[in-house]
Amino acid sequence: MFAAACGSATPSPVDVGSGSLTGAGATFPAPFYTKAFFDYTTMYPQVTINYQAVGSGAGISQFQKGTVDFGASDVPMTDADIAKVPGGATALVQVPTTLGVISVAYNLSGVSKLQLDGPTLANIYLGRITKWNDPAITAMNSGVSLPSSAIQVVHRSDGSGTSYHFTDYLAKVSPEWKSRVGVGKAVSWPAGIGGSGNQGVAQAVTSTAGAIGYVELAYVVQTGMSQAYIKNADGNFVQASVAGATAAASHNSDVSPSNFSITNMAGADTYPIAGFSWVILPTSVSDAGKGKALANLFKWLVTDGQTEGTSLQYAALPKPVQTLALTNLKTIQAGGKPVLS
Asked: Model-level pTM?
């Protein structure tokens, strides 16, 4: 269950529905959801929320089985995923909730600044670059004393939307990665060890000298890990940031569940590994109170609730994406009646 977070709110007489909501899925937005859900239930104590951060793949699976009220994934469901939901495409709606950034974290004593480009990062994860003082790395880090020690690659062990965004980026900058490994929530990793969830990768990197791993920026900030500067499409080395994610998102003006990639986008300040996170909701809920609670929770989350993520390194949804979210939420019916107008 999500942990308590600080927040102050005033109860409101607005009818937002009632009931106990259960959700499961992505670890990428979990710090944001933890804070936001706590503050929402403080405002509306007639609603309780239990969110399990078990990974995007598990969240989709639990939604398909009907064991949760909502699923959460950093990658929208595919047609094959949707076919496994009773009722198919008309039985669900996918709603973008936040915009996050995937940082490349490392554990190298004495190295306060590390620069990497996409092809080099891909070659590290392909197992072709195995030492920190490899010429490809030293060429980008003039004046930095890099050790001859082995690079300890860390990746996700579970089905992960964070992995999808990371491999989506690698496939755009490395033809070999694209043809040999590909893009997905779960891939056959050529090198490294696995960690479960963003928290598992973060733990592995912080506890392993010489490690490198990809984690959502919120986890990097919370744990104080070092993060690399990544060369963007314009040739500038940039660190993961909210501003960099916002810049990336500005280059996709028609976001949808089938057009959501914002990796390796152009722009001087754009960070190249960013992505949206989504929730998967039923379009029909027989329990009127619970259906109303579900629709109103996520209406708040994609509007006023966006401010909950700022201090946790999540970017607010761009206006067109927020409009998409609200439009999609209007398809939800509770007790046979539309909840939102």
From this structure: 0.91
